[in-house]
């Protein structure tokens, strides 16, 4: 069954037994020092077609250290959410860029197929510099998702679709699907006002990325990602190491999706 994102109002008149029952079904995912990596990409872009399939490997190898988001522009996957996210980025950098271009924690870091080494350096720098985020959490209550109201800045929730099928008529030099595609977004400001963009109904395979960030653009204060997609681990338990080395060496590493369950723990 698909889930619909909504802000949840908890009635104060609950009886103690009802409240206890509701509390037992609540799952919380607190903000972490996760680094946000956003890629401007397009289906028709040949370099993107080479880079994008590797992002799933990178995301798995980094685990909770990074949250990778594919922002599609000027193609069949462009939507209200991707356009709104680019407008947010333009508050701090309005320069036009090609694809692929990577933004790490709100800062344009590198362009082109050979960009990942610069992206990796920026990730390490941010990991060392970021302070502990505010104690705020995304809460799952059955089929609903509750977002906190920040005391400053804004909370941005991004809905990502995995293995999104590329339309047959698209100019596509790459694979028939794309991963980690931004399809929907909800923004909550410090007054509790919300703005919705794109598709907020969760697809079959999804990730949710919650970001606490400045309203005027810039580096996030904290990030957390949850997902319902999980990958098979190799028998010796060294999948992450092998995947990371394979990416650096240019070796193609293939792993298949397995059972579905939320994953947010450190890899």
Give your account of this protein's structure.
With 267 residues, this protein is α+β, with helices and mostly antiparallel strands. The chain has one domain: Glutaredoxin, CATH 3.40.30.10. The protein is built from 5 helices and 14 strands. Strand 11 and strand 12 form a beta hairpin.
Question: What are the main properties of this structure?
Answer:
single chain; 267 residues; alpha+beta; Glutaredoxin; 5-stranded antiparallel β-sheet; 23% helix; globular; disordered N terminus
Short description:
By secondary structure, this protein is an alpha+beta fold.
Helix and strand layout, with pairings?
Layout: H1 16-24, E1 26-30, E2 35-41, H2 46-62, E3 66-72, H3 80-90, E4 101-104, E5 107-111, H4 116-129, E6 137-141, E7 144-146, E8 154-161, E9 164-165, E10 177-178, E11 181-189, E12 194-198, E13 206-213, E14 222-227, H5 239-249
Parallel strand pairs: 2-3
Antiparallel strand pairs: 1-6, 2-4, 4-5, 6-7, 8-11, 8-13, 9-10, 11-12, 13-14
Helix pairs in contact: 2-5
CATH level 3 topology: Glutaredoxin
Please give the count of helices. Answer: 5
Query: Per CATH, which architecture?
Result: 3-Layer(aba) Sandwich
On the 0-100 scale, what is the average pLDDT? Answer: 79
Which blocks of ≥5 consecutive residues have pLDDT under 50? 1-23, 231-267
Main β-sheet, spatial strand arrangement? 12-11-8-13-14
Largest sheet properties: 5 strands, antiparallel
Total strands: 14
